[in-house]
Amino acid sequence: xxxxxxxxxxxxxxxxxxxxAAVLHRAAQDCRAVDAPxxxxxxxxxxxxxxxxxxxxxxxxxxxxxxxxNVHGERLYNVSLTLEEWYQVRAALSEYAARLTRTPGNPxxxxxxxxxxxxxxxxxxxxxxxxxxx
Length: 134
Fold this sequence. Notes:
The protein is an alpha+beta fold. The chain is about 55% helix and about 20% strand. It has helices at about 15-30, 50-60, 85-100, 110-134; strands at about 5, 5-15, 65-70, 75-80. The radius of gyration is 15 Å and the shape is globular.
């Protein structure tokens, strides 16, 4: 986990990549994200939920924008994002976890929701650790 040219590299397993891709996709849909007009799609200086969702879909579905290694039979995706992009991922995961554990009227969440929220928050902690120690 090193930092070069303002990018932070974080290895993630397939379940973590799928979680981030799904959370960002939903966040982009919920806010009806559209691309920034007049800015090339490969310009990473502009961070939007729509672009982040598309990037993570490419990582999850086609293994693009990352290095994939096989460690002890497990596929790890070495994902490189800027600090701002990781902040967006953290924010989306945190909001997802909050939504899973908070429902109208505040009835107790199901066990599966709590498990998913825990997975999201553990990933938030991991991202925070990497970007603050970099």
